[in-house]
Design brief:
By secondary structure, the chain is an all-beta fold. 0% of the residues lie in helices and 22% in strands. The protein has two domains: 31 residues, no CATH class; 48 residues, no CATH class. Strands 1-2 form a two-stranded antiparallel ribbon.
C-alpha cells in the first residue's frame, strides 16, 4: 500500500480529526468483507474470475470464532 497507513473515510486520526476524503474501502478492514475485490458484487461461487481484470476472488474462511458478549471472529479472504 505504498508504505502509507491504511484508513477509510470516517476513521479518526490520532489527533482527533476524522478522515473526510478518500476511499470508502481499503485492503485492511474493507467494509464489504472482501479485500480489494476486482469484481465487487460479483459471483463468488465456482471460479469467480473477472475476465477484464483477471482478478480472482475467493470467499472468506472462518479460522476461529469465540462466542461471548463481544464475539471474536478471525477470517481470511483472498483476492488476486
Amino acid at each position: 500500500m505504498s508504505g502509507k497507513p491504511a484508513a477509510r473515510q470516517g476513521d479518526m486520526t490520532q489527533y482527533g480529526g476524522s478522515i473526510v476524503q478518500g476511499s470508502a474501502g481499503v485492503r485492511i478492514g474493507a467494509p464489504t468483507g472482501v479485500a480489494c475485490s476486482g469484481c465487487p458484487g460479483g459471483v463468488t461461487s465456482g471460479h469467480p474470475v473477472n475476465p477484464l481484470l483477471g482478478a480472482k476472488v475467493l470467499p472468506g474462511e472462518t479460522d476461529i470464532a469465540l462466542p461471548g458478549p463481544l464475539p471474536f471472529i478471525l477470517s481470511r479472504t483472498y483476492s488476486s
